[in-house]
Design the sequence.
């Protein structure tokens, strides 16, 4: 790890810790977690993440053009490579939603319709997150979108193994086809263009450190709000049958 990346990650540690220590997430990852609630959360997270990630390729392409216009042709090209990875992750999230919903329908009620899951009304946190990214791309520092994308991927990659372990323990190996996006994020962390681009940019532009840290911090705070919304949606789904008999 380069000294530039070390300095950046040290500055992001408080925001990353706030996200990791979110009460509902800790409950989902606890040894005594409820399998139905965990399954419901996985479905809601994957389906709502499709909405969250859908515009990302367009944002990255726009940021690429803006960076090229500002004279940074190298970053502009790198962001195009990152956008290709974003498309792949988006597709995996949709596949995960389908697999997780099919598993749910074989075990639990209510019956879930894939189209309804993927076309849920946009949530407040998603709207705020997309507006945050739009402001970056259209603002004077479009290169900062790199930190926004990096932090979400880093969170997914760093939690892929333990989430997969928890999911398998609670739901069995049948859940694995619904976790492909996490495994993809973990692979990209090691050999994808996003991590490499982030390291290169931090090293080449130490004067942008503070802006990248601020962008990454704001992104994680918004993502914490997003996960909280996923938890609420998961509770509503997992408690449906109990409410029918109340």
Sequence:
């Amino acid at each position: 790890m380069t000294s530039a990346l070390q300095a950046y990650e040290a500055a992001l540690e408080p925001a990353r810790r706030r996200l990791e220590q979110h009460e509902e997430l800790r409950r989902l990852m606890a040894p005594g977690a409820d399998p139905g609630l965990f399954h419901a959360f996985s479905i809601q997270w994957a389906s709502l993440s499709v909405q969250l990630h859908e515009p990302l390729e367009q944002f990255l392409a726009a940021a690429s053009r803006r960076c090229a216009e500002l004279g940074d042709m190298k970053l502009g090209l790198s962001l195009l490579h990152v956008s290709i990875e974003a498309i792949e992750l988006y597709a995996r999230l949709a596949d995960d939603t389908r697999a997780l919903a099919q598993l749910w329908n074989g075990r639990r009620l209510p019956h879930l319709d894939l189209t309804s899951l993927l076309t849920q009304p946009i949530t407040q946190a998603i709207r705020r997150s997309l507006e945050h990214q739009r402001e970056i791309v259209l603002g004077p520092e479009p290169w900062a979108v790199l930190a926004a994308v990096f932090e979400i991927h880093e969170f997914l990659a760093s939690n892929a193994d333990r989430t997969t372990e928890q999911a398998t323990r609670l739901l069995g190996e049948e859940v694995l086809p619904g976790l492909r996006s996490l495994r993809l994020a973990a692979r990209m962390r090691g050999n994808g263009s996003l991590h490499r681009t982030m390291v290169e940019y931090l090293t080449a532009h130490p004067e942008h450190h503070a802006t990248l840290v601020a962008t990454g911090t704001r992104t994680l705070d918004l993502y914490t709000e997003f996960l909280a919304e996923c938890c609420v949606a998961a509770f509503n789904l997992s408690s449906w049958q109990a409410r029918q008999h109340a």
